[in-house]
Fold this protein.
Amino acid sequence: MLRSLLWSAGLMTLFTQSLAADAPRVATDIPPIHALVSDVMEGIATPDLVIRPGASPHGYAMRPSEAATLEKADVVIWVGDALTPWLHDTIATLNPDAPSVQLMDLPDTQNLPFREGVSFEHHDEEEGHDHHETADPHVWLDPKNAIVWLQTIAETLAAHDPENAARYQENAQRAQVEIIATQAQINAILEGKRTTPFIVFHDAYQHFETRFGLAAAGAISLADATPPSPARISEIQHVLQDLNVRCVFSEPQYNSGLVTTVISNSGARVAQLDPLGVDLPQGVGMYPNLLLQMAKTIATCLK
């Protein structure tokens, strides 16, 4: 009996190793995209993550090991130039022959325009940055985009690994169902909170706000995380007072001292909102947990 069990375990190990050996090496940019690719590759192989958890993707300096990850990749799946403008040239230099899937550029991705003013009113040029031709790069925070991307990821991987095509498709469909269920949970969590104004650290949440009907009143810094000017900080303080904002959200990637400055003498609460899921287990299943964590944080702070 023991010999039979050991034989079966050995066969399963060999089978798993064979699947992984045939699978493409996939490099991803940020943890949420790594999670979606991990969902599709579950049981076959594990993708690589270029930008370490806890770091801002907007202005990132790669380590040698991360550059090596890009260099060895068979496929690169990333958000796009608007989030990590430095990554395009890096891929072109290190691995010009690898297929590069920019998720923002997919035809069915729902893109939103870059918001510029403190209260999201349009300015032709905010603080010396002309962004009027740029889309908001935080597209992964709309779960409907993630559902679209899972299908594209499965098709991309199947093209490189036809033997596992059915498995990629099954995994993608299972992840899509889970995200749809998560949307329903989030709508229930946010019930009664949609008209309550709040302020975010940087304008990263437009896609989440739009999908779930939230009433963000302003952002301390722009969507590209450009440090705010004294004038912008002063303006956001006026917004906070005029709208009697209850909650201002900090982020683990950025200086919380700015939030302290903004809320001084206001009585507003502070909570940490994280669009990248720094403190969540990375990989399979992380994406819906990220959205749920954000929804619960918002709902709790807006009570």
User: Anything to note?
Assistant: The longest strand covers residues 216-221.
